[in-house]
Protein backbone atom coordinates (compact mmCIF):
# COMPACT_ATOMS: atom_id res chain seq x y z
CA UNK A 1 0.00 0.00 0.00
CA UNK A 2 2.73 2.47 0.99
CA UNK A 3 4.76 2.02 -2.22
CA UNK A 4 2.41 4.51 -3.90
CA UNK A 5 2.95 7.07 -1.10
CA UNK A 6 3.90 10.44 -2.51
CA UNK A 7 4.57 13.35 -0.17
CA UNK A 8 3.66 15.96 -2.80
CA UNK A 9 0.32 14.25 -3.55
CA UNK A 10 -0.42 13.91 0.17
CA UNK A 11 0.22 17.64 0.78
CA UNK A 12 -1.93 18.60 -2.23
CA UNK A 13 -4.77 16.35 -1.04
CA UNK A 14 -4.39 17.73 2.50
CA UNK A 15 -4.72 21.34 1.29
CA UNK A 16 -7.77 20.52 -0.87
CA UNK A 17 -9.53 18.73 2.02
CA UNK A 18 -8.45 21.44 4.47
CA UNK A 19 -10.13 24.07 2.28
CA UNK A 20 -13.28 21.99 1.68
CA UNK A 21 -13.77 20.90 5.30
CA UNK A 22 -13.02 24.53 6.31
CA UNK A 23 -13.17 23.98 10.07
CA UNK A 24 -11.68 27.45 10.70
CA UNK A 25 -14.58 29.01 8.78
CA UNK A 26 -16.97 26.93 10.90
CA UNK A 27 -15.66 28.30 14.22
CA UNK A 28 -18.28 31.10 14.45
CA UNK A 29 -21.02 28.48 13.79
CA UNK A 30 -19.65 26.15 16.51
CA UNK A 31 -19.42 29.03 19.02
CA UNK A 32 -22.95 30.09 18.12
CA UNK A 33 -24.21 26.52 18.73
CA UNK A 34 -22.46 26.38 22.11
CA UNK A 35 -23.94 29.74 23.10
CA UNK A 36 -27.40 28.35 22.30
CA UNK A 37 -26.67 25.56 24.77
CA UNK A 38 -26.33 22.85 22.12
CA UNK A 39 -23.89 20.05 22.85
CA UNK A 40 -20.84 19.87 20.56
CA UNK A 41 -18.68 16.80 21.22
CA UNK A 42 -15.26 17.06 19.54
CA UNK A 43 -14.36 13.36 19.76
CA UNK A 44 -17.74 12.18 18.49
CA UNK A 45 -17.79 14.76 15.67
CA UNK A 46 -14.28 13.80 14.50
CA UNK A 47 -14.80 10.02 14.66
CA UNK A 48 -18.24 10.04 12.95
CA UNK A 49 -17.05 12.45 10.23
CA UNK A 50 -13.97 10.32 9.57
CA UNK A 51 -15.97 7.08 9.38
CA UNK A 52 -18.52 8.65 7.02
CA UNK A 53 -15.82 10.05 4.75
CA UNK A 54 -13.62 6.95 4.68
CA UNK A 55 -16.72 4.79 4.10
CA UNK A 56 -17.79 6.94 1.18
CA UNK A 57 -14.22 7.07 -0.14
CA UNK A 58 -14.11 3.27 -0.46
CA UNK A 59 -17.80 2.49 -1.12
CA UNK A 60 -18.40 5.52 -3.35
CA UNK A 61 -16.58 3.77 -6.18
CA UNK A 62 -18.95 0.79 -5.98
CA UNK A 63 -21.94 3.14 -5.89
CA UNK A 64 -20.69 4.92 -9.00
CA UNK A 65 -20.28 1.64 -10.85
CA UNK A 66 -23.82 0.71 -9.81
CA UNK A 67 -25.11 3.82 -11.57
CA UNK A 68 -22.68 3.37 -14.50
CA UNK A 69 -20.92 6.66 -13.70
CA UNK A 70 -17.16 6.87 -14.23
CA UNK A 71 -14.86 8.69 -11.81
CA UNK A 72 -14.06 11.43 -14.36
CA UNK A 73 -17.75 12.33 -14.82
CA UNK A 74 -18.13 12.38 -11.04
CA UNK A 75 -15.06 14.60 -10.71
CA UNK A 76 -16.56 17.06 -13.24
CA UNK A 77 -19.84 17.07 -11.26
CA UNK A 78 -17.82 17.42 -8.05
CA UNK A 79 -15.98 20.41 -9.48
CA UNK A 80 -19.34 22.24 -9.70
CA UNK A 81 -20.12 21.49 -6.03
CA UNK A 82 -16.63 22.71 -5.00
CA UNK A 83 -17.13 25.78 -7.21
CA UNK A 84 -20.40 26.61 -5.37
CA UNK A 85 -18.73 26.00 -1.99
CA UNK A 86 -15.95 28.41 -2.94
CA UNK A 87 -18.55 31.03 -3.97
CA UNK A 88 -20.19 30.65 -0.54
CA UNK A 89 -16.84 31.34 1.13
CA UNK A 90 -15.83 34.25 -1.13
CA UNK A 91 -19.18 36.04 -1.47
CA UNK A 92 -20.63 35.28 2.00
CA UNK A 93 -23.81 33.77 0.60
CA UNK A 94 -25.64 30.62 1.63
CA UNK A 95 -26.16 28.22 -1.25
CA UNK A 96 -26.35 24.95 0.70
CA UNK A 97 -29.26 25.31 3.11
CA UNK A 98 -29.19 23.03 6.14
CA UNK A 99 -32.61 21.35 6.31
CA UNK A 100 -31.61 18.49 8.63
CA UNK A 101 -33.33 17.67 11.91
CA UNK A 102 -31.59 19.61 14.69
CA UNK A 103 -31.43 17.90 18.06
CA UNK A 104 -27.80 17.49 19.00
CA UNK A 105 -25.43 19.93 17.33
CA UNK A 106 -22.61 17.34 17.04
CA UNK A 107 -24.39 15.42 14.29
CA UNK A 108 -26.34 18.24 12.64
CA UNK A 109 -24.99 20.64 11.57
CA UNK A 110 -21.40 19.88 12.67
CA UNK A 111 -20.84 16.38 11.24
CA UNK A 112 -23.34 16.82 8.43
CA UNK A 113 -23.20 19.01 6.42
CA UNK A 114 -20.29 21.08 7.81
CA UNK A 115 -17.59 18.37 8.02
CA UNK A 116 -18.84 15.35 6.08
CA UNK A 117 -21.12 17.00 3.57
CA UNK A 118 -21.64 16.99 -0.18
CA UNK A 119 -18.43 19.00 -0.65
CA UNK A 120 -16.22 16.57 1.28
CA UNK A 121 -17.74 13.50 -0.38
CA UNK A 122 -17.42 14.81 -3.91
CA UNK A 123 -13.92 16.11 -3.20
CA UNK A 124 -12.74 12.73 -1.88
CA UNK A 125 -13.97 10.90 -4.98
CA UNK A 126 -12.75 13.63 -7.30
CA UNK A 127 -9.28 13.38 -5.71
CA UNK A 128 -9.31 9.64 -6.44
CA UNK A 129 -9.33 10.50 -10.13
CA UNK A 130 -5.93 12.15 -9.63
CA UNK A 131 -4.09 10.77 -6.58
CA UNK A 132 -3.20 7.38 -5.08
CA UNK A 133 -5.63 6.31 -2.31
CA UNK A 134 -2.95 6.08 0.39
CA UNK A 135 -2.07 9.78 -0.01
CA UNK A 136 -5.72 10.85 0.25
CA UNK A 137 -6.36 8.67 3.34
CA UNK A 138 -3.28 10.07 5.14
CA UNK A 139 -4.36 13.60 4.18
CA UNK A 140 -7.85 12.88 5.55
CA UNK A 141 -6.48 11.49 8.86
CA UNK A 142 -4.28 14.60 9.31
CA UNK A 143 -7.29 16.81 8.60
CA UNK A 144 -9.39 14.95 11.17
CA UNK A 145 -6.68 15.44 13.83
CA UNK A 146 -6.77 19.17 12.98
CA UNK A 147 -10.61 19.20 13.12
CA UNK A 148 -10.56 17.56 16.58
CA UNK A 149 -8.07 20.14 17.85
CA UNK A 150 -10.08 23.08 16.44
CA UNK A 151 -13.45 21.87 17.75
CA UNK A 152 -11.90 21.34 21.21
CA UNK A 153 -10.28 24.81 21.20
CA UNK A 154 -12.87 26.90 19.30
CA UNK A 155 -13.03 29.76 21.80
CA UNK A 156 -9.22 30.03 22.08
CA UNK A 157 -8.70 29.90 18.32
CA UNK A 158 -11.32 32.59 17.77
CA UNK A 159 -9.56 34.79 20.33
CA UNK A 160 -6.21 34.09 18.64
CA UNK A 161 -7.34 34.84 15.08
CA UNK A 162 -10.02 37.36 15.93
CA UNK A 163 -13.20 37.62 13.85
CA UNK A 164 -11.28 39.50 11.13
CA UNK A 165 -8.57 36.83 10.97
CA UNK A 166 -11.10 34.02 10.54
CA UNK A 167 -12.87 36.07 7.85
CA UNK A 168 -9.59 36.53 5.91
CA UNK A 169 -8.63 32.83 6.23
CA UNK A 170 -12.07 31.85 4.91
CA UNK A 171 -11.76 34.19 1.92
CA UNK A 172 -8.23 32.96 1.15
CA UNK A 173 -9.30 29.30 1.14
CA UNK A 174 -12.39 30.21 -0.85
CA UNK A 175 -10.14 31.46 -3.65
CA UNK A 176 -7.95 28.32 -3.41
CA UNK A 177 -11.09 26.16 -3.66
CA UNK A 178 -12.23 28.12 -6.69
CA UNK A 179 -8.89 27.43 -8.41
CA UNK A 180 -9.08 23.73 -7.43
CA UNK A 181 -12.60 23.40 -8.87
CA UNK A 182 -11.48 24.93 -12.17
CA UNK A 183 -8.47 22.58 -12.33
CA UNK A 184 -10.60 19.51 -11.47
CA UNK A 185 -13.05 20.49 -14.17
CA UNK A 186 -10.46 21.10 -16.92
CA UNK A 187 -8.38 17.96 -16.18
CA UNK A 188 -11.37 15.63 -16.07
CA UNK A 189 -13.33 17.19 -18.92
CA UNK A 190 -10.24 16.65 -21.11
CA UNK A 191 -10.06 12.99 -20.00
CA UNK A 192 -13.76 12.57 -20.85
CA UNK A 193 -13.31 14.13 -24.29
CA UNK A 194 -10.27 11.88 -24.97
CA UNK A 195 -12.27 8.82 -23.87
CA UNK A 196 -15.15 9.79 -26.20
CA UNK A 197 -12.77 10.35 -29.12
CA UNK A 198 -11.13 6.98 -28.43
CA UNK A 199 -14.47 5.17 -28.82
From TrEMBL:
It holds the Pfam family MarC. The keyword Transmembrane applies. The lineage of its organism: Bacteria, Pseudomonadati, Bacteroidota, Bacteroidia, Bacteroidales. It is found in: Cell membrane. Keywords: Cell membrane, Membrane, Transmembrane, Transmembrane helix. Belongs to the UPF0056 (MarC) family. This is UPF0056 membrane protein. It is a multi-pass membrane protein. It comes from the Bacteria. The chain crosses the membrane at residues 12-33, 45-67, 73-93, 105-125, 131-151, 172-193.
Amino acid sequence: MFESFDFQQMISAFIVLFAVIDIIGSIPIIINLKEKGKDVNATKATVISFLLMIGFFYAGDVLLRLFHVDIESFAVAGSFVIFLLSLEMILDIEIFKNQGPIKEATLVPLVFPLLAGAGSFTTLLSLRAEYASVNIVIALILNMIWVYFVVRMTARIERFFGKGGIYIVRKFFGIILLAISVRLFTVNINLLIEALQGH
